[in-house]
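Many introductory courses stop at the sequence. We go one step further.
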Amino acid sequence: MVAMVAYTVPGMKAGNAEKVNGLLQDRLNSLNDLALTLKHVHWNVTGPNFIAVHTMLDPQVEAVRGMADETAERIAALGGSPVGTPGALVAQRDWDDYSIGRADAIAHLGALDLVYQGIIEAHRAGIDTTEELDLVTQDMLIGQARQLEEFHWFVRAHLESGHGTLSTSGATTEKAAAKSATRKISRASRTSK
């Protein structure tokens, strides 16, 4: 829930600031959730690719935490009150918790493929929405989307075949993506021997 703003940045209408703050609160929730999810994967990844994935994720966690901070501060600058409590995040989100516990690195990367896909799609929708409302916020979202897309590429590089197909292609849930990634990677390693 976004409170009405009493003031905002010079040159912006209060109604536009409220719309932007509502969008940004959703992005803040997503970024906080993503940082927690990445740390969860960092702690629960196993298997031969453990160290590569484990160490790849820490810089992503730090960068996403920075994005969350930047987003919260933008809400405040626009006269809003950013909400970063766990209860508010759970109450306001329209997605489920990350569904994979202790698992092989490839399974987690398969699930993270879908996680990143969802957050990037929502960021891009926010970029479109802010085109007319606030170009400064749009610029911030564009920068964040660029970095999120790079992290998504890092994840997908582990899931891509030499022919450019993703092992998670067609999966619509994290568990299905994890299973598909693991199965196709295992099959590929058996046939290469």
